[in-house]
Amino acid sequence: MLELRDIFFSVDKNEIIRGVNLTVENNKFVVITGPNGGGKSTLARLIMGIEKPTGGKIIFDGQDITDADITERAQFGISFAFQQPVRFKGIEVFDLLKLSAGGKLPFNKACDYLSAVGLCARDYINREVNSSLSGGEVKRIEIATILARKTKLSIFDEPEAGIDLWSFKHLIQIFEDMRKNIDGGSIVIISHQERILSIADEIIVLAEGQIKNRGAAEKILPEIINTESVLRECEKLKR
Amino acid sequence: MLKLDEIQRRLIAEIAGLHKVPIGAYNFRANSQLAGRNTTANIDITSKDDGSGIDIRVKDGTKNESVHIPVVLSASGIKETVYNDFYIGENCDVVIVAGCGIDNCGNQDSEHDGVHRFFVGKNSKVKYVEKHYGSGDGAGQKILNPLTEVSLNDDSIMEMEMVQIKGVDSTNRVTTAELKTGAKLIVRERLMTHGAQKAYSTYKITLNGENSGADVVSRGVAKGKSFQKLDLCVIGNAPCNGHTECDSIIMDEGKILAVPSLEANHVDAMLFHEAAIGKIAGEQLIKLMTLGLTEQEAEEQIISGFLK
Ligand SMILES: Nc1ncnc2c1ncn2[C@@H]1O[C@H](COP(=O)(O)OP(=O)(O)OP(=O)(O)O)[C@@H](O)[C@H]1O
Ligand SMILES: [Mg+2]
Predict the structure, then answer these.
(1) Packing angle between helix A93-100 and helix B295-306, nearest 10 degrees?
(2) Would you place residue A230 in the very low, low, confident or very high pLDDT band (cuts 50, 70, 90)?
(3) Domain boundary at B92, B116, B148, which?
(4) Which of A52, A128, B81, B218 has its CA 20 to 30 A from that of A205?
(5) pLDDT at position A85, please?
(6) Domain range spanning residue B193?
């Protein structure tokens, strides 16, 4: 479905992505992990068209989309949940979900998306997506917008960040449901979480702008489990 | 019944959201003529003897009633100044919907200068909604210069929603308020200018009484080559709370000048001001584009949310 061919990206003389080749097949659940600053978010922004590569090609469903803009890529069927969701003055949660669904969305459907991300619809549907929402709340709303989009390719940038443990289980459930319900659809998640890594079909380790390791979860997880990036906060503190 | 033509009806729908005759008291003014009036047991409307405007009197204890006083101008070349005085009794809770719509297809300027004075009695609550709108693409200018004076007696509350969304070529709005003990003033202003429009908005709020408070938030969007000047001034003469905020988006070659000022004349006066001017945040546009909107559609959504 998605193919990155020899992608390079640099800002000024600083090379952030250095020759990434990657194929995401239909119906796959791919997790990208790696150290902070490794280039994961940048790679996702390149796929969505927010940044343009300085070299290489991006192919989506057999079509070269390297020169397509964000709107076109969104319409081709790519969606992207930001690591740091954007806030808006005056735009309500329901408005944002409607826009995500392409304009029209029945009220009860919008409520379903909110419940799926563990938000009580009644309390949130008419809230403005502004700075009065907590970090975890905007993060959940961001995920709900992707559920409402129902695209072939959904990319989530650290969806678990800021989400409490109880909801975390639901989050995993959401990804599993998405995978079941979207025919031929694939999910790419950027994550540091072992639980998310463990359910991946393929794990990709990105560091210094290059793919350092890749393969099935059973193979990769044991290899990286003791590295910095997947250590839980408390273990870091203990050392 | 109402003596209004099609254009006038459309203007009224724009400014007052009215598609039929409202319930309660009203006074419709069209092309400088009285087009319809209704009074109720508690709300009286009378024309001033010299014909310069109307007096609206609300009896003590009037609750859950409304007054609509829309003004429309649909003929080119009218210039009028109207004086409307509102006497709100004690312990009232009323909604006042004003607003002016101008349609000018001609070559002469049309101008409505409304002078509104509010005398709000003790313990009363007033919600005031005012919308200004212009349409018609004649060479004649559509000009609105509202002058609003508010005097709030002890423990009264006035909430003002002032909106100018479209089509007014030139406006110079001046709002002054004086607050007594425990009185509160809440203002939400929304201004959008486009083309070569100019909008000046000035507030002078004087907090005279103990525990009085004012919260003024003005949001503006200046598109095209338009210009806005916001002048928000709060004076604290007693233990009081004042907050003003200018929040503006500039687009194209728009210009915005925000001039906040605070004057504290009492050691327990707490006055705050916030001001921010900038273009639409790039991340906001990008997020909406990732949902499939074009840049233009994203811009429209962001602006309409911001001005809501
Ligand atoms: N526009 C930019 N200009 C300059 N440097 C940038 C830009 N975008 C990204 N970088 C740099 O590129 C590197 C990769 O950033 P990126 O956000 O992709 O990392 P990441 O893998 O997502 O990290 P994290 O796990 O912390 O989210 C970082 O060193 C970052 O500072
Ligand atoms: Mg990142």
Answers:
(1) 170
(2) very low
(3) B148
(4) A52
(5) 96
(6) 169-308
Which amino acid appears at position A8 of this protein?
F
Beta carbons of A142 and A172 less than 8 angstroms apart? no
Taking the C-alpha atoms of residue A57 and residue A28, their distance in angstroms, rounded to an integer, is 21
Distance from CA of A102 to the nearest CA of B (A): 7
A39-60: average pLDDT: 96
Residue A41: CB within 6 Å of ligand 1?
yes
> H/E element holding A238?
helix A233-238
Q: Which of residues 137-156 of B touch A (CB under 8 A)?
A: none
Stretches in chain B below the pLDDT threshold 50: none
pLDDT of A18 > 80? The answer is: yes
pLDDT of residue A237: 54
Distance from the B44 Cα atom to the nearest Cα atom in chain A, whole angstroms = 37
| Owner of token pair 């916001």 | B230
% of chain A with per-residue pLDDT over 70: 93
Q: Note whether B62 and B43 are within 8 A (CB).
A: yes
Whether chain A has a CB inside 8 Å of the CB on B276: the answer is no
pLDDT for res B22: 81
| Residue B143 belongs to a domain | yes
B234 and B187 in a common domain: yes
CB B39 within 8 Å of CB B68? no
